[in-house]
Write a structure and sequence with these properties.
Elements: H1 2-47, H2 56-137
Length: about 140
């Protein structure tokens, strides 16, 4: 049974490490996407500055550019939401795995304590038996 528990503990630890790596990668991707969104927002805000004279062709081009930038931003926002959903799932799985590891460690500790107590009692019993045998011989 101890080998089974050790194997389970090893598997849970491995899963914990794998999930941590995936979570870190997802968080990094989210940061990158968020930075891209901020850069696009800055570009959009800079493009909204109007000039004194109105040139229809220039305004149409500007509007097209703003529309494209806003569409890119919307796509990035959707990607960011997907990354955040993935992060939430990974964090939930990671929490579950950590809880399982902690429960397994506590179980193993209780089993070791029970084994130690049993060993101590058997040693005490053997010692008492030895003492009784030595008293009879004396």
């Amino acid at each position: 049974m101890s080998q089974t528990l050790t194997a389970l503990m090893t598997r849970l630890t491995w899963q914990n490490n794998e999930l941590s790596i995936h979570l870190q990668a997802a968080e990094d991707e989210s940061r990158i996407v968020m930075q891209q969104i901020l850069e696009l927002e800055h570009t959009i805000n800079q493009s909204c500055i109007t000039s004194m004279s109105i040139n229809p062709e220039l305004e149409i081009n500007k509007l097209n550019f703003l529309t494209q930038q806003q569409e890119k931003k919307d796509e990035l926002v959707m990607i960011l939401k997907n990354h955040q959903a993935l992060e939430a799932k990974l964090k939930d799985k990671l929490l579950r795995i950590k809880t399982e590891i902690k429960m397994l460690e506590q179980y193993m500790e209780r089993e070791q304590d029970a084994s130690r107590q049993h060993q101590i009692k058997s040693q005490e019993g053997a010692l008492e038996e030895w003492v009784l045998q030595n008293r009879k011989s004396v």
